[in-house]
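Input/output pair, single chain:
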Amino acid sequence: MERTCGNGTLRLADAGKKVTLIGWVQRRRNFGALVFIDLRDRSGLVQVVFDETLSDSIKDVRSEYILQVTGTVVERKEANPKMETGEIEVHAEAVKIINSAATPPIMISDDTDALEDTRLKYRYLDLRRPSLQKILMTRHKVCMITRKTLDSMGFVEVETPILARSTPEGARDYLVPSRLYNGKFWALPQSPQIYKQLLMIGGMEKYFQIARCFRDEDLRADRQPTFTQIDVEMSFVDENDVFAVVEKLMQAIFMEIRGYKVEDHFVRMTWDECMKRYGSDKPDLRYGYEIQNIGEIFADTDFTVFRTVLDSNGEVDAVKFDQAASRYSRKKLDELQEFIKHNFRAKALAWLKMEKGELSGSIVKAISDAEKQALIEKLAITDDDLVLIVADKPHVAETALGALRIRLAHELDRLPKEETYKFLWVTDFPMFEWDEEEQRWQAAHHPFTAPRVNDINELFTDPEHVMSRAYDLVLNGYEQLSGSIRIYDQNMQEKVFESIGMTMEQAQQKFGFFLEAFKYGTPPHGGFAIGLERLIMVLCGTDNIRDVVAFPTNNSAVDLMSDSPNVVDQAQLDILGLSINKKD
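Output:
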């Protein structure tokens, strides 16, 4: 089918050229003898002018019809600065209707007013919108840059199985029943974790894969049941080697996609320091408002609330927001208190304001003049500053104030106006986390993560304070990457299994083939996985993960377009030896 160029590529320099275009009708406008049609393809829009000689040919044409037009590029008398092709138009000399179209159920433009569920139901129409096409093209470019950059560093792309053995100790697996072996199941991989470690044992040394991953878990705002990782593993490395690879990759991606030069080496911070300063293990460093521990000021306080918290090994923490006191009424402060009570189980929110050199607030009468003065000096409080205080268990106080830090930064519009990307390496994560339901310690990352060398002797005596060699890369408040240095010594792997209550018999049952490989000379190795969707979200400036996935599910993990998941024929179930017992 003849086509000389993309519709959106034409410019004033093309005036006088004869072109043949193909595309969808974006808009039609009738002006007596002349008809103007904006013709759209992936490259953009161009205005096509039809005179009365072609009026019969296009009399039935409306939105989303596909036309083939041959004509001459002409300079417009009045340019349209809102269109990239706004300095020219095409005067049609011949037209052919390639296909007709029913009236679309959604408006196909970036300013569409359709509900998201409607857009997801008609996703193939939604994808015609320029903004979504631009995002998918950005995603493609990021994958190509990744392949090029990692290849230049000696990495080899290797595909790992999609049908694999179910290995618990993570999110729930999606299970696939076997027809040949009734009663047995494959699992879709939550990640290529075991396989990429086996590739290191197999001597590949440097592996990567743009891998599809599957997790049957409750959805989060930035997670789909099917997602993509830039998955990397390498041998004979430590954390510094891993960080260098990631930093080079991010530098290439952000320069080529955004024209933005990121720093040569990213800031590093331990998990413990992150929690104390920001109340989050994925802090947004584009703004300040750090948490400050003010417990020392109240070491000898007569204020019963603070005294009780400090005597029970709790913390008194505060965040100061400059020029914010006048923005928060008593009603709004009560709303903030309910927010942290409901979401973080904090007992209360105390607050102070500085107004005309005097402190006022919920606790101003309960604390001494010396304590007030110490607070003013420590927090550098000046007129119209707002101080929020939480006294509670350390984790509660820190996470509650961390959430308030984010909320107020957005409400006060304190994010930088210019394009800014702040990367942060978060290191030394806790090795274990307590599972209340099972009453045991479980791996916080996964059970193949190496413990910090200095903490090995505390695996059984003090698991709560054992730190791992795990690391995350955070960008503007989004976790972009998670990884770790892996265990490569069989004895150490057995100890970690034991520390999470797993006997070697159970370990053999779940990971037997993997543990067998450890006997044959496993190299020290480590790696990471970048969440591709989250990276594209930041690059494209959207906070909706469904914008960066071609065919996403909704918040209930349902594909509205294909109406799936759905039932299957009984004959298919019979072949697999399965029956359905519906839940109540």
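The longest strand covers residues 18-31. The chain has a mean pLDDT of 94.
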